[in-house]
Amino acid sequence: MMPALSPNTQAILLLTAPLIAGRNPSSPELLSPGEYKRLARHLREIQRQPADLVLPDATDLLHACQPVIDHARLQRLLGRGFLLSQAIERWQARAIWVISRADAAYPRRFKMRLREDAPAVIYGCGDISLLELGGLAVVGSRHVDDSLIDHTMAVGRMTAQAGRVLVSGGAKGVDQAAMRGALVAGGKVCGVLADSLEKTVMNREHRNLLLDRQLVLISPYDPSAGFNVGNAMQRNKLIYALADASLVVSSDLNKGGTWAGAIEQLDKLKFVPVYVRSEGVLSAGLDALRGRGALLWPNSPGVDAFESVFNAITLAPMSPQSDLTLDFSNEPSDVSPTPQACPKSLEVVEKPSEAVSPPVAAGKSSNSLPTYVQPPVDVTNSDGDVAKITSTPADTLFAAVRELIQILLKAPMKEAEVAAVLEVSNVQAKVWLQRLLEEGLIEKQKQPAGYVIRHSSLFSSDQAAIPHLEKSGRKSSDLQRC
User: Fold this and answer.
1) Which of 162, 160, 167, 101 is nearest to 132 (CA)?
2) From 250's CA, which of 139, 222, 377, 404 has a CA 20 to 30 Å away?
3) Are 215 and 209 in contact (CB under 8 A)?
4) Where residue 402 falls among pLDDT bands split at 50, 70, 90?
5) Pick the CATH number of 128-311 from 3.40.1160.10, 3.40.980.10, 3.40.50.2020, 3.40.50.450
6) Which pLDDT band, with edges at 50, 70 and 90, does 250 fall under?
7) How far apart (Å, rounded) are the C-alpha atoms in residues 131 and 107?
8) Residue spans with biased composition (Polar residues) (predicted)?
9) Could you give the angle at the alpha carbon of 426 between the alpha carbons of 420 and 432, nearest 5°?
10) pLDDT tens-digit profile of 267-312?
11) Residues 153 and 181: beta-carbon distance below 8 Å
12) How far apart are CA 439 and CA 456, in angstroms?
């Protein structure tokens, strides 16, 4: 089912998309990504949405945007309604859907990892839900020999056998080999294209895979856009943002898109662990990536060893959604709740600070760690039994967050994602999740991978959170979108 084109998305397309097949998308009339980012921030500040710009009485709003974008320029762009209707008709004929940051279906990984740099619009074809499953990103050079093609296809097959999604860029060479290996083995694949989405989705081989929900192809660029080096470089971060781990099969040294994307990931973004190929003839590029912190890929891993690559700790797990994501969505969502995107107002429902800062014993300095025992705490297990336990500070803190974690785990989350929302270390999140597992309140599932609340242990915590949300100025219905 194709996502409906929302009014906000239509407005964003009018402001940023070329809308004419073959036209240079860098036309000076269109808003650049940086200009749209500033406009979006301004609209949020004055509590308006992109869709408000095309309302019949939008004249005052256009003038209110003058400090950011010239209102006459906005009028010219927003007056392209006929061109937009033609473009929509063309996209729909090719089963291409379009979503924007204002839509609930927009990939949450882009919002949470890229924040303001998440593409304003995403074009795609295929099963959009595949974008939420994580997986293994495989990248590499376009020009490689047959032995590397075979090796890469084997990685794709292993990814499929392990039940993981394969994420790649769709370019010739390593990208296509990895995707082909996974698809032939019956796996799921996300292709993040830098160009020619329209042409690619019309390929007969791809059409069947798209219809069978094995494949989703997306691009942040106009579906008819041709190849552009800058676009190819910029889309690299999108590949890493959709994944849980990454493998660089081949790379030149100090040049090329593969090198630039891997270095950006290692030095700056740090979304996922970066591995480099460890079999066959290595290269100066891979050796250099190792020197910058990349890990060695396990030699000929079985499924168990393959799963271990997803457990490496990254330095920058997904961040909670904030206002800086420029999300204008006010509409009910038909997609699964996204607990990682909960606003900070939900992160302290039970005031954990009272447990974090116990009183200091008399005669002790504030730097000492006094013995501090809380009164007995009631703990309810999955069978409804209540027991009183004498708690330590750690128990008290756990009591403060246990129900919040259960609210978050209505949709599967991994340790790093829970840690990101609660702003604690991965180790601390793991300890809390293990305690909930032992109490039988949550379970760990493989597909999609992550911890999730057991249906028999649903709490009334949602209702407890609602008053807090209302005090913070949010509607209680927002809880379902968190």
Assistant:
1) 167
2) 222
3) yes
4) confident
5) 3.40.50.450
6) very high
7) 6
8) 326-339
9) 95
10) 999 999 999 999 888 899 999 999 999 999 987 767 777 888 888 7
11) yes
12) 12
Q: Where are the domains of the chain?
A: 7-95, 128-311, 336-360+372-481
115: left (phi over 0), alpha (psi -120 to 50) or beta: left
Strand ranges, E, within 245-316? 245-248, 274-276, 295-296
- Class of residue 129 by CB neighbours under 10 A (exposed 0-12, middle 13-18, buried 19+): middle
Tokens of 325: 């994501």
The answer to whether 376 and 391 are in contact (CB under 8 A) is yes
The CA distance from 5 to 123, in Å, is 11
C-alpha 137, offset from chain centre: 13
CA trace torsion 205, 207, 211, 217 (10° rounding)? 100
Tokens of 340: 């990682």
DSSP state of 425: -
Maximum Cα–Cα distance across the chain: 78
Cα 406 vs. chain centroid, distance in angstroms? 21
DSSP 3-state helix, strand, coil percentages of the chain (rounded to 5)? 45, 10, 45
Q: How many residues can be counted in the chain? A: 482
Complete edge-to-edge strand list for the sheet that includes strand 97-100: 97-100, 121-126, 215-219, 189-192, 166-168, 136-139, 245-248, 274-276, 295-296
Write the CA distances from 226 to 140, 219, 257, 319, 424, integer angstroms.
21, 12, 17, 33, 44
Query: Which of 21-30, 393-402, 441-450 has the lowest average pLDDT?
Result: 21-30
The one-letter amino acid at 364: K
Closest CA to 389 of 404, 373, 371, 402: 373
Rounded Cα gap, residues 330 and 405, in angstroms: 25
Please, what's the b/e burial string for 421-432 (b: 16 or more CB within 10 A of its CB; e: otherwise)? bbebebebbbeb
Instruction: List Cβ neighbours of 401 (8 Å cut-off, separation of 6 or more).
Output: 350, 352, 422, 432
The pLDDT, as a whole number, for residue 455 is 63
The string of DSSP codes covering 20-89 is STT--TT-TTSPPHHHHHHHHHHHHHTT--GGGGGSTT-HHHHHHTTTTS-HHHHHHHHT-HHHHHHHHH
Instruction: Taking the CA atoms of 260, 263, 267 and 273 in sequence, report the sign of the dihedral they define.
Output: positive
Q: What is the pLDDT of residue 60?
A: 96
What CATH code would you report for 336-360+372-481?
1.10.10
